[in-house]
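Appendix B, example 12.
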Amino acid sequence: MQNSSRSRVDPFIVMDVMEAARAAEAAGRHIIHMEVGQPGTPAPARARAAVTGALHDDPLGYTVALGLPALREGIATLYKDWYNVDLDPARVVVTAGSSGAFVLAFTALFDSGARVGLGEPGYPSYRQILSALGLTPVG
């Protein structure tokens, strides 16, 4: 079996930085994490209580593929309240992180082999995702 050429992307260096920080913390060093958008504080007590209640009261399982309807409606309402933009909740897709959202967006917008311009500096994962999808990052 041959590995796909899509796996030939540069390493995502932030993972190495995160591992070095984790090892330094394990060795007793105080680390201020600035390598990723990972929260350094716990979730608010009300949010934790709501999750606990939902886990206790509701059955576990997969959510709706595009995201919970109430969440999608809430996001559309937020866009109206904050930006005065009318957004149909049917056009809102909830993902478990930005990388999944970028894969969806890039595959919807570009065909394999397309050249895609990137701003610099920029998020390193854009380049990795584009390359893995057979797109050519430019910039």
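The mean pLDDT is 89. The longest helix spans residues 69-83.
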